[in-house]
Amino acid sequence: MAVQEIHASQPLIEENQRLKRAVEELSILNDLARAIGASVNSQDIMHTIIHRSLRAINAEQGVITLVDPEANSPMKTLVRTMASSAQNPRYHFNQSLLGWMHLNKRPLTLNDPPNDPRFRGVQWDASIRSLLCVPMMIKSELKGVLTVYNKKEGKQFTDEDQRLLAIIAAQSAQVVENARLYESEQTLMRMKEEVRLAARIQSDLLPSSAPAIEGYDIAGTSVPAQVVGGDYFDFIPTDDNRIAVCLADVSGKGLPASLLMANVQATLRGQTFLGVSPKVCVQRANKLLYLSTSPEKFVTLFYAILDPKLHQLAFSNAGHDNPFLLTADGHTERLGTGGMVLSILEDFPYEEALVSMGPGDVLVVYSDGITEAVNTSEVQFGEERLAKVIQEHRHESASGLLECIVKEVKTFAGGMAQADDMTLLIVKRK
Question: Is the model's pTM score more than 0.70?
Answer without folding.
Answer: no
